[in-house]
Design brief:
Elements: H1 3-6, E1 12-21, E2 29-34, E3 55-57, H2 59-67, E4 75-79, H3 87-100, E5 104-108, H4 113-116, H5 122-128, E6 131-134, E7 142-145, E8 148-150, E9 154-158, H6 164-168, E10 173-177, E11 183-187, E12 207-210
Parallel strand pairs: 2-4, 4-5, 5-6, 9-12
Antiparallel strand pairs: 1-2, 1-3, 6-9, 7-8, 10-11
Helix pairs in contact: 2-3
GO molecular function, one term: metal ion binding
Keywords: 4Fe-4S, Iron, Iron-sulfur, Metal-binding, S-adenosyl-L-methionine
Organism: Streptomyces scabichelini
């Protein structure tokens, strides 16, 4: 049975949820990792998120989980997996965050910006996020700073809530210790050393500031 025969996806396939992270965007943020990605970037930091499975949750349930955090978080970051392979529920979640809270929204996608802009939902997506980071992870261009895992990734800022220096101030990684003793390593991959720079300069950053 095709997706069109099944009807639209209602729930969100979820890999994980971290209520308090300092390494996935400016300030303290709730992080949603979706499950499922077919892009297959070699060296991806989250290979366990690639399979299509995962526990499905409704947008309403996830939104209420975020709202219960109150003013202890500055915003929500959506990562994966590939959020834009679940565009319908992701956009519904982002729309509720934008309309019903004062939280900011950051979204990571492995799609290139040129691919994002060709999606029918591109305008709605850009209206719903403050920061979008786009592009495949390229291990040969690894930089692991400013929320970019590799130098080819592009940063797109919408509105005036954040500037590039806000992203540069985000820690590259963190270790979250859960009450049950589990450890979660999150953030931009801190495990492998970056390639030696060709010269004494920073990699250029592509910035697009939206209205």
């Amino acid at each position: 049975m095709s997706r069109s025969q099944r009807g639209p996806q209602r729930g969100l396939r979820l890999h994980g949820f971290e209520p308090y992270s300092a390494a996935n965007g400016p300030g303290t943020r709730a992080v949603v990792w979706v499950q499922g990605c077919t892009l297959g970037c070699p060296g991806c930091f989250n290979p366990e998120t690639h399979e299509r499975g995962g526990g499905e949750t409704t947008v309403d349930e996830l939104f209420e989980r975020i709202v219960r955090l109150g003013d202890r978080v500055e915003g929500v970051t959506i990562s994966g997996g590939e959020p834009l392979q679940q565009r319908e529920p992701v956009l519904r979640l982002l729309a509720r965050i934008r309309a019903e809270t004062s939280l900011s929204a950051v979204l990571f996608t492995g799609y290139r910006w040129s691919e994002v802009t060709r999606m029918p939902e591109a305008a709605a997506l850009c209206d719903s996020v403050d920061v979008l980071l786009a592009g495949r992870y390229e291990s040969g261009q690894r930089i692991a700073r400013g929320l970019r895992g590799s130098a080819n990734k592009t940063v797109h800022l919408f509105g005036d809530r954040y500037a590039l220096h806000d992203l540069d101030a985000v820690p590259d990684a963190e270790v979250v210790i859960h009450p049950d003793g589990r450890l979660t390593l999150t953030g931009i991959d801190p495990l492998a050393p970056p390639p030696a720079p060709a010269g004494p300069h920073r990699q250029p950053v592509d910035i697009e500031v939206g209205e």
